[in-house]
Known about the structure:
By secondary structure, the chain is an alpha+beta fold. The protein has helices spanning 2-29, 113-118, 151-159, 161-194, and strands at 40-44, 59-63, 75-83, 89-101, 108-111, 124-125, 131-132, 134-135, 140-148.
Amino acid sequence: MKKVLKALKTLIPLLIILYFGAYFFVSVFFPDKKITVFGYSLSIVQTGSMEPKIKVRDGIFIVRVRKDNLKEGDIINFRARVKNKAGEIEEINVVHYLGYVGEDGAYYKTQSHSRKEEGSFDLWYDEEGMRTERINPEDILGKVAFRIPRLGYFVETFRDPMMLLLLALDGLLIILLAVILKEPKKNAEGAAAKN
């Protein structure tokens, strides 16, 4: 029984570390994939539309929420259609305030930080390419549960191939130094044993 408990004490933390390591790996190398761990998914803020409340490169954790639990003033994550630089409509993930809840939650209106201050609503594109203030309930991905300031800088470091190469070289240098520094001890111990 003691062996089983000892094995579990070693195995459970190892599995947790492995699980979060895999989550971090997918978040770094496949940022468009949304993975949920214990009900939370991670996003890195790319624009300053929510400053000063949420800044560029902050990590935000999104939790799924029932639509009837949403209220005005909540900070939500949702899909919206915008025009890209080529003038084509594309769908992106956005984090803004929930500014208005339509009757029975049939639609919602959102506000960036500056629009909340001035009392107006964001403009998006609908499926037909027409401008609208409304977003559909199925476009809401969740509510911001909490944020970690500047987490994006750390995550983006691991997305940069040059940084990954430098980190790998640093790791190899540390291992090489550890081997070199252990060699004299072994030689000294061997010489002392011969005497």
